[in-house]
Each structure stands twice: as C-alpha cells, then as structure tokens.
Amino acid sequence: MKILVLVKQVPDTSEIQLNKETNTLDRENAKAITNPDDLAGVEEALRLREQFGGTVTTVTMGPLQAKNMIQELYALGIDHAALITDRAFGGSDTLATSTIISEYIKRYQPDYDLIIAGYQAIDGDTAQVGPQIAELLDIPQATYLQKIRKYDKKNKTIIVEKRYEDHVDVLELPLPALITTLADMNTPRLLNTWDIMTSQDKLDNDLQVITYEEMPIDREIIGLKGSPTKVSGISNKQAVQKSPAEVLSPEEAAEKIAKLVYPYIEVNK
User: Fold this and answer.
1) pTM
2) How many distinct structural domains can be found in the chain?
C-alpha cells in the first residue's frame, strides 16, 4: 500500500504575533510545529503500513526550514519525504497550494493508493486544501474522519467513519482516494533522541527537494498572482475576563427565560 501524507509546518498559534504592515502571521519569529491534524494522518499511515505493508511518503510545501520537521517525521518512521519549496510558490492561497501539490503528485507520485491530509491547518482553519487536491486529481474523498475501520486489499477499498456533530457516517471508498484526519483520532507515537539523531542521514540522502525548476507551472495560477483569496485586514482579539456565572434557582431561571421570550408580558410569580 503506497500512502502519501500531506504535512504542513505551522507556527504555534498560541504564541503567534501579527505583522500589521503585511496583514499576515509573523512566521519568522514564531515557534514552528507540525500541524496537529497532519500528525494524526502520519500516525494513521504508519499503522496501516505496519498492518498491510507498503510505504509512507510525506509531502510538504514550505520554506527550507521545514527540513527540521521532516527530520522528526523520518524519526517517527516514514519511508520517504518530499519538500516543495521555491520563491515562485510563496504567497499561494489554498487553491494555488492545491494546484502545486496536485501537480507534484501527478508528476512524481502517480501510483499512490491513498492520500491522507490533515482536516485543516491551525494557521488558516480553512479545511480546503485536502478536498481541493482530491478534486484536481479527480478521486473520491472523505473528510473529517474519526477512524479508519478497514482496508480491503483484495477489492482495493477503505471503510472509514466520518464524524458529524450529532452522528457518524460509515463510508466505503474505492482506492485511490483522499481522506482527511482529525488530531484527536489517535495518539501519535513519541520521538526519542536516538531516533532523531539517526534520522539525519535519512534526511540527507532520501529527501526529495522540488523547486520551480523541477516543476514549472504557469505563474498565473500559483503564488500571490495566482491566488484569488485576498486578506483585507487582520487583528488580535483581546481576551476579556467575564464575571463568575450567576447561579439561579429553577424558578428564577424560568422567569428570566419568560422575560426574554415574552418581554412585554408580566410574569406571574
């Protein structure tokens, strides 16, 4: 089973600052982490490989500093990794990013069985990249998964659980397909110092670095120029501490509710 996992290095949004001049996140001064939903996808891929065999390849689009994250992914146990990085790709919104990644998959990884993407990235919260890549590749997709139930190697299908607010759907997808994972669907395995140290050799000898020269794409559909999404403004929202909740008796609560529903009627006590 050949699995591709889309992984993004993101700024830790609990510590992030804003660049007021560019209306963007100050990524240079923020601590970088692996996007939590993506990390769950890596864990799911490793579990599938352990059970059914095959390979796990992560695909990342971002600056060269993402190599630090990729080294950790090698330490977790991935087989291969690709880093798509070039100034020409910078500033891409979700559509341009999906175009670039899907083009990479078409050119360099066309024989995949399953693509796993995190449901959304914590620095954007759009949940658009995974579904857009599935559309550009013209393959089935299932999003917001809480569990992978079964992989049928003979019939080349996968059965998954898709979470909603009030119920769960069980879906069967023909492969190849794309799924998106949630951070709380599993507990990623822990890293140890020895694994990280020994993964440096893997990073140096296995990592595939793809630049614009290796994958030229029409500049009209990538980068800032090819991004229809424009951010008009961004600001910090200050947290306001609320006063302790008021504790009411059932009778007092009923009276308040009645006044809200029927503001002009006097409530009989």
Assistant:
1) 0.82
2) 1
